[in-house]
Specification:
The structure holds two protein chains of two kinds. By secondary structure, chain A is an all-alpha fold. In chain A, about 70% of the residues lie in helices and about 0% in strands. By secondary structure, chain B is an all-alpha fold. Classes of the chains: A mainly alpha, B mainly alpha.
Chain lengths: ~130, ~240
C-alpha cells in the first residue's frame, strides 16, 4: 500500500471522527478542529504505549502531513477569491471593518506579548541590552 | 467554434482548477523573489490575478468554486495535520505552560471580542461580526467557525488574510518598541496573525517561529470554543 494513501486516509478519518463528534454532541466547533485535537491526543497516547516508536516527523505520515502544511497557501486561494462575492461589504462597511481589524490586531499583539512576558521565567529569557 | 469551446471550458471544473494552480505557481514565484514580504503573500497575489479574470469573463464565484473546490477541500485534512508540529513541540510547551496558557487565554479572548466589539461600535451588522470574530486564526478554521455560526466563510477568509498581512507588517516594529524577547514576540505573532505572522516570526529567529506555530495551533482550538459563546451576545 502506498504510504501516501494511508497517510491521507488517516487524516480524513480524524476529520470524519471530529465531524461526527461535533454533530452528535452539538459542539459548535468545526469538525477538522476536533480532528486536530483527536490526532494530538492520539499521538500522546502513542508515546505512552510505545515510547521507542519512530518519531512521528520521520514517518511517512509525518512527512505527508508536513507536505500538506507546506502547501497551505495554495489551499486558501479558492476562499480568498470569494472576495468577488463580497465587494458590497467593503463598499458599505469598509471603515467599520478596517477599524475592527486594525484596532483588534494591535491590541491582541500587545496584550498577548505583555502577558507572556510577565509570566515567563526571567532567567532563560534572551537578555535585553545592558543599560 | 472557438466560442462553443470557451462556453464548454468556462463551465468545466477543469478550467478553474487549473487556473487556480497556475495562479498559485506564478504568485509563489513572485513572492519568493520579494523575499516573502507580507504584502507579496502568494494568496494575495493569486487572488489579485484570478479576480480580474473572473470579472472580465463574467464568471460567477459559484462556477469558479466548482473547479477550485478540489483544492479547497484539502483545508480540512491540513487543519488536522497541524497536530503534528504541535505534538513535536510538546516539550517546549510543557516548559512554558504558565505563560503559554495565560497568554493564550487572554490573547484569544481579546482577539475575537475586540474585533466584534469594535465592528459593532462602528455599526457593522451581525453577518460581518460573525466573520470578524475568528479573524486571528488560520483561514481554514476561521471559515469553519463562520459557517458553523451562520456567517459567510469567504468573508471570514478575506478578514483573516487582511489581519495576517497587517499583523505581519507591524509585528517587528511594535515588538521592538515594547522591547519584547523572541518567545513573547513569536507567541503574539502566531496568536494574532496566524500563518502570516508565524512566517515573519521565523524570519526573526527559529525560536520565535516555533512559539508562533504553537500559538497558531492552540489559538485555532481556543477561538473555535470561545466565538460561539461570544457571538451570542450580538445576535
Amino acid at each position: 500500500m502506498q504510504p501516501m494513501i494511508l497517510s491521507f486516509t488517516a487524516l480524513l478519518l480524524c476529520q470524519l471522527a471530529g465531524e461526527i463528534i461535533a454533530r452528535a454532541a452539538h459542539i459548535p466547533v468545526p469538525g477538522p478542529v476536533l480532528g486536530f485535537a483527536l490526532l494530538f491526543v492520539a499521538l500522546l497516547v502513542r508515546d505512552r504505549i510505545s515510547p521507542d516508536a519512530t518519531p512521528i516527523g520521520e514517518t511517512a505520515f509525518g512527512g505527508f502531513s508536513k507536505m500538506l502544511l507546506g502547501s497551505l497557501s495554495l489551499l486558501f486561494i479558492p476562499a480568498g477569491v470569494g472576495i468577488v462575492s463580497n465587494f458590497a461589504v467593503f463598499r458599505d462597511y469598509g471603515l467599520a471593518v478596517a477599524v475592527a481589524l486594525i484596532g483588534s490586531t494591535v491590541l491582541t499583539l500587545v496584550l498577548t506579548a505583555l502577558v507572556f512576558r510577565a509570566l515567563a521565567p526571567k532567567h532563560d529569557a534572551p537578555q535585553s541590552p545592558a543599560p | 467554434m472557438t466560442e462553443s469551446l470557451w462556453v464548454y471550458l468556462a463551465a468545466s471544473p477543469l478550467l478553474w482548477l487549473t487556473a487556480t494552480m497556475v495562479a498559485f505557481v506564478i504568485a509563489d514565484t513572485i513572492s519568493k523573489r520579494c523575499h516573502r514580504h507580507p504584502l507579496a503573500h502568494p494568496v494575495v497575489l493569486a487572488t489579485a490575478l484570478l479576480v480580474p479574470i473572473l470579472l472580465v469573463t463574467g464568471t460567477s464565484y459559484e462556477t469558479y468554486f466548482n473547479g477550485a473546490q478540489f483544492v479547497h477541500f484539502l483545508l480540512g485534512p491540513a487543519i488536522v495535520a497541524l497536530a503534528i508540529p504541535l505534538y513535536e513541540n510538546r516539550l517546549v510547551v510543557g516548559k512554558a505552560l504558565l505563560p503559554i496558557g495565560a497568554a493564550l487565554l487572554v490573547g484569544s479572548v481579546v482577539a475575537s471580542s475586540s474585533a466584534v466589539v469594535l465592528g459593532w461600535m462602528m455599526g457593522a451588522p451581525f453577518k460581518i461580526l460573525v466573520a470578524l470574530a475568528p479573524k486571528s486564526v488560520t483561514a481554514g478554521i476561521a471559515m469553519g467557525i463562520a459557517r458553523e455560526l451562520g456567517g459567510e466563510p469567504s468573508l471570514a477568509a478575506t478578514f483573516v488574510l487582511a489581519t495576517g498581512i497587517f499583523g505581519g507588517m507591524i509585528l517587528l516594529p511594535l515588538m521592538k518598541a515594547l522591547n519584547m524577547d523572541d518567545r513573547a514576540t513569536g507567541f503574539a505573532a502566531g496568536l494574532a496573525s496566524h500563518g502570516l505572522g508565524t512566517a515573519v516570526a521565523f524570519q526573526l529567529t527559529p525560536l520565535a517561529g516555533t512559539f508562533a506555530g504553537i500559538a497558531m495551533g492552540l489559538n485555532g482550538l481556543m477561538t473555535a470554543l470561545i466565538v460561539p459563546v461570544l457571538i451570542r451576545f450580538f445576535s
